[in-house]
């Protein structure tokens, strides 16, 4: 187990998480920020990439589970991401739709921020948020992050406006 909060725990994802991950990454509502659903091959690539990150960097997007039932509800963690001019360490997360608006994103990002600062010794972390993702902007602000800038990111259907939020230790 990587992290534990009052209601959640983060663990490294394994191949047997594929079906749960697939259900989430192929849900059009969950994936609206990406503006496309993942194919089975995309899901496998996502899983493989994060398992590689665990081995190479000691972090990535971990599986997020309800502590009480061990049910997979999403993923969250730390990963290197590109902005328009630099790479940053991002706190990121995705939740299955049925777990939206229950406070889980705020709960887990607070714990990840503390882990990044206190366990990994990072001095600053970021969140890259699509301009119309109001719920994630609220989570970032609740975490104490401030909006640093706006920039365009290349996606499957062209460029998309994103906001870069950050917080320093």
Give a verbal description of the structure.
With 169 residues, the chain is of the alpha+beta class. The chain has one domain: 3-Layer(aba) Sandwich (Aminopeptidase), CATH 3.40.630. It is built from four helices and eight strands; from the N terminus they run ββααβββαβαββ. The protein has helices at residues 18-25, 40-57, 104-118, 134-142, and strands at 3-4, 8-11, 61-66, 72-82, 87-95, 124-130, 146-155, 158-168. The strands form two sheets. A five-stranded antiparallel sheet has the order 1-2-3-4-5, sandwiched between helices. β7 and β8 (158-168) form a beta hairpin. The radius of gyration is 15 Å and the shape is globular. The model has no long low-confidence stretch (mean pLDDT 94).
Key features of this structure:
169 residues; alpha+beta; Aminopeptidase; 3-stranded antiparallel beta sheet; 8 strands; 30% helix; globular
Topology:
Blueprint: E1 3-4, E2 8-11, H1 18-25, H2 40-57, E3 61-66, E4 72-82, E5 87-95, H3 104-118, E6 124-130, H4 134-142, E7 146-155, E8 158-168
Antiparallel strand pairs: 1-2, 2-3, 3-4, 4-5, 6-8, 7-8
Helix pairs in contact: 1-2
Proper CATH architecture: 3-Layer(aba) Sandwich
- The tally of structural domains comes to 1
The CA-CA distance between the termini, in Å, is 24 Å
Biggest sheet record: 5 strands, antiparallel
N-to-C SSE string, H for helix and E for strand: EEHHEEEHEHEE
| CATH third-level topology | Aminopeptidase
Keywords: Ligase
Pfam family, one: Acetyltransf_3
GO molecular function, one term: GMP synthase (glutamine-hydrolyzing) activity
InterPro entries: Acyl_CoA_acyltransferase, GNAT_dom, N-acetyltransferase
